[in-house]
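quick one
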Amino acid sequence: MSETTIFRGPLMRFAGDPFEIGAEAALIYDEDSALAVENGLIAAVGPAETIIAAYPGAGVSSAGGLIAPGFVDCHMHYPQTAVIASYGTQLLDWLNTYTFPEEARFGDPDYAAKAARIYFDQQLMNGTTTACSFCTIHPASVDAYFAEAARRGVRALGGKVMMDRNAPENLRDTPQSGYDDSKALAEKWHGKGRAQYAVTPRFAPTSSPEQLEAAGTLWAEFPDCVMQTHLSENHAEIAWVGELFPDCPDYLGVYEKFGLLGRGALFGHGIHLTQREIDRLAETGAGIAHCPTSNQFLGSGECDVAGLRARNVPLGLATDVGGGTSFSMFRTMKAAYEVAQRRGVSLSPVHLWWLATEGAAKALGIGGKVGNLAPGLEADAVVLNLRSTPLITHRMERARSISEVLFAQIVLADDRAVMQTICGGKTVYCREA
Ligand code: GUN
Ligand code: ZN
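structure w/ guanine:
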């Protein structure tokens, strides 16, 4: 018989999508809950006494903090970890000045392996249990990423960047090599353990029409893979796409032309969308990865989160490191709040937290696996110290509801609040006392 492990403590989870049923109905919070885990999956969750009685003989450990769904970061670039916080540019200059030179290093498997280790240390200390990463054009960067994720028991999505033009010579593949390498990597990694391959053309300006077509062919061959790229992040970028693809109606129309629009497509940013583009996202079920710290840092603009969700466009929060400035989903939720405020919308803490967990998982098409604490899902969770700094401790004295507690954490907390990160029922990170 399989062993059951029980984590006991205050616990939060979601009863549904707050954008559909409202914040109050969407949050389930219980002061004394238990999470029963068997074979890496959640067997049961509910009031502690009921769960403990249902599993006599199970080992029960006191969590010592708030048990919450592990965070999900649905768009980031692990190879950009070393150039996070690079000064003074907007998207296109930032790519040329900082990003491409760093990505060029990933042809060296040792460099890639070390970078992957550093990245996963950051991810897990921030309580992020699943991320979807762009790698670089080098297959070695993908191998390093998935190998490190497997070593740690973490669900991970990612793929080889396809890029055959408008990039330095040493960072270009070709339509054929990009396709061949990506296919070999998908065959090697997709569905192996907790790895999921993502078809990853970088963005329209760095792929020829032939390469975008090859990416469309590849996605058709691996339809249960995520297809990730970038969309409408920056005005100069959008104008450039218009020059490069004059026969397409708009930026999204480029991806649509090459078979890269549909359910399972996840577009980073989606800030300056036309009505037609929003309609096409809504009609096809493609999603947006909202990257608010990146959008603020690179001066890109403000995504219309409420408007997109009102059209039922799948949307999740993402760090977009290294354009994004933090691995912390607390910082990311805070930035999402501030970005929405600039558009006159005050997202509730429940909406923000959902976007950083179940919303991001659903945008990646893995809402049935991770993103919430519910029976049958993988046991990916985080244990949070709600008094991780003197200021937060002081602020907690005035918090009158769980909603106020969560909001103050969103604004004030960071990795110091993450006591424990649990992936597949195993503790993969524990903060030193
Ligand atoms: N657009 C194309 N590549 C990138 C990237 O690496 N980061 C961001 N933020 N936008 C991009
Ligand atoms: Zn990105």
